[in-house]
Write a structure and sequence with these properties.
Elements: E1 6-9, E2 14-15, E3 17-20, H1 25-37, E4 41-45, H2 51-62, E5 66-71, E6 74-78, E7 88-92, H3 97-114, E8 116-121, H4 132-141, E9 145-147, E10 156-161, E11 172-175, H5 181-189, E12 198-203, H6 210-221, E13 227-229, E14 233-236, E15 247-249, H7 254-266, E16 276-279, H8 292-299, E17 302-306, E18 309-313, E19 319-320, E20 323-325, H9 333-339, E21 343-344, E22 347-350, H10 362-373, E23 376-380, E24 383-387, E25 395-397, H11 403-409, E26 421-424, H12 436-443, E27 444-445, E28 453-457, H13 464-475, E29 478-481, H14 482-496, H15 502-505, H16 508-519, E30 523-526, E31 529-532, E32 535-536, H17 544-553, H18 557-568, E33 576-580, H19 583-587, E34 593-598, H20 601-614, H21 621-637, E35 650-653, H22 659-673
Parallel strand pairs: 3-16, 4-15, 7-8, 11-12, 19-21, 20-22, 25-26, 28-33, 28-34, 29-33, 34-35
Antiparallel strand pairs: 1-26, 2-27, 4-6, 5-6, 8-10, 9-10, 12-14, 13-14, 16-18, 17-18, 22-24, 23-24, 30-31, 31-32
Bound molecules: shikimate-3-phosphate (S3P) and phosphoenolpyruvate.
Phosphoenolpyruvate binds at residues 95-98, 331, 358-359, 404, 432.
Function: Catalyzes the transfer of the enolpyruvyl moiety of phosphoenolpyruvate (PEP) to the 5-hydroxyl of shikimate-3-phosphate (S3P) to produce enolpyruvyl shikimate-3-phosphate and inorganic phosphate.
Domain Enolpyruvate transferase: 17-440
Domain Cytidylate kinase: 454-668
Length: 679
Amino acid sequence: MYAIPFLDIPPLRSAGGTVTLPGSKSISNRVLLLAALSDGETTLHDLLDSDDTRVMLTALQTLGCQVTRLGPQQVKVQGLGGRLPVRQAQLFLGNAGTAMRPLTAALALLASTHGGVFELSGIPRMHERPIGDLVDALRQLGCPIACLGREGYPPLRVGHGAPVPLQLQAPIRVRGDVSSQFLTALLLALPLVAQQDVTIEVVGELISKPYIEITLALLARFGVAVIRDGWQRFTIPAGSRYRSPGGVHVEGDASSASYFIALGAIAPASPGHDGITIQGVGLASMQGDIRFVDAARAMGADITGSANQLHIRRGHWPLKAIDLDCNHIPDAAMTLAVMALYAQGTTTLRNIASWRVKETDRIAAMACELRKLGATVEEAHDAIRITPPTHWHAARIHTYDDHRVAMCFSLAAFNPAGQPVRIEDPKCVAKTFPDYFETLFGVCQAAPADIPVICIDGPTASGKGTLATAVAERLGYHVLDSGVLYRLVGLAAERQGIPTDAASLTQPAVAERLGQLAATLPVRFDAGRVWLDGEDVSDAVRTESAGMAASRVSALPPVRQALLDLQRRFRALPGLVADGRDMGTVIFPDAALKVFLTASAEQRANRRHKQLISKGIPARIEDLLADLKARDARDMSRQDAPLKPAEDALPLDNSAQSIEESVQQVLAWWQARRPDWAH
Ligand SMILES: O=C(O)C1=C[C@@H](OP(=O)(O)O)[C@@H](O)[C@H](O)C1
Ligand SMILES: C=C(OP(=O)(O)O)C(=O)O
């Protein structure tokens, strides 16, 4: 996940490959609750691991439910059989509608039948999302519920300690025109008290209907067969009781699929690929958002699929504008709004009033951000109309803590003007798809020249590695510690018995062998560690002897040549910070920012000394200083790519700077080279 203030997505050119989607949020939170309320133990497979499911899981544990994590996407839930060991709790539910609404109903009924008092709260936006229709329905039943802030909104207190009688004879009336989650909440909760038939009547038009189908299908999996009369009346038969089905597999999230369906429809196929394959969700999905496929086809996407898989190719291009009632796919429809940027003509998305009460006012948010890209947008209270830009602008997309805004606007990076897109607060995708951007970059390609590189060159012990790592972390970029590559050649040579002393290196045969070794170096950088042929060598490469060997082998042309390609392969989405001695001069001469980092030899010897001592390695400053000076002289005088600043490098002397000051300086230089995000 990119936990950084903004993520700059370079202009993207093509896409291809396979993505496996994380589990459906709607299914995950329903089955977690159902498993907790059931008799027996349930193992949930392919469960979504995200903010929304974590708040549900934590709430269930707080309520006394035993949950054992068997793997990142697998949990075992010990069902409570409709009883609560805990009678008093405060539950924080973030911004998860699928946790707040169903838990409100379930706890209101349990507190009424067994006694108890529970407080449910969320983030500030959750306290602006309506729940009044559900509260009204539960109060009809006799459940004590207090809105602790504004009437009709969380935070809520349900129950008041002692049990209260429930009135279950008359049909329970609930409005469904603000959110279908109120009806879902009642359907999930009422089997807990169904000693007699219990009927729910929907008042007015029900929105987001397909989510009710998910609810009914999952109730059936847990042993409760609801009798329905269209969308108007739902009856839970007397004696209904939740029974664990033993195990449940969660489908991939159909709303999350929409971004990759759109990707396949927008992006030309990458060389060697034939579109995008999505695994984990397919045409047989129980999720209504799979109907996004029809909308994407109407816009021109070429989509084939099977029960559990989809395959998308670019079909009609440019895309075709559509005029669509999107009430059945409220979440995925946001993706259509971004696809509309690539359509010929004006697209209208209708019947989406619920967008205004979700993670943010999504109609207003989409209109504002689409306009930043250059689109013409008209807003109605329940619709949005989008005409594509004639001139695309580089835009800084504000994401309103709304995962879907962040995800769908990433697709604007395919704009024909080749403008990058800045996504602010990219970590908001954690609500439902924490690794969204990593997954996207895994199947997208950019022209190498469009992938930004920041080079930080400089002499040994100038703090290049520390600076490069910190700058890369702030920008979400990859790091290339090119010095480590040379050290790795030195280390690998040592291990294979290839001599690296000065005399041996003058022999052409030795230089050749070292070149071959470098060309096939099995190196991997992962989570700040360096791996050589599957072995973590992060510490071994940092020894002074490996450093000296690196300096000697790095002067050999065959080694430099072999490592050239390897180093250039590190230029990957969304960008790279490369540190070394010839990054700006030889490896990435077209880099957008080159920094030449220096510090006095004394200062560098001092830092190296502190570093070694802190690791318990004995060292003398005088020796280190002499070594440094010798190494500087060798690096500067070598024939091939000597250490010297690139002509367009900016000098940075960090002798008197803190690390943070250097980082801020480099970031300021970088910002000055970014597009004008004024729009
Ligand atoms: O029941 C569900 O799982 C959901 C229902 C929909 O909400 P509304 O019914 O409020 O439209 C949807 O937007 C939400 O993301 C998930
Ligand atoms: C509306 C959404 O979430 P919630 O489940 O919180 O309603 C959504 O995921 O788009």
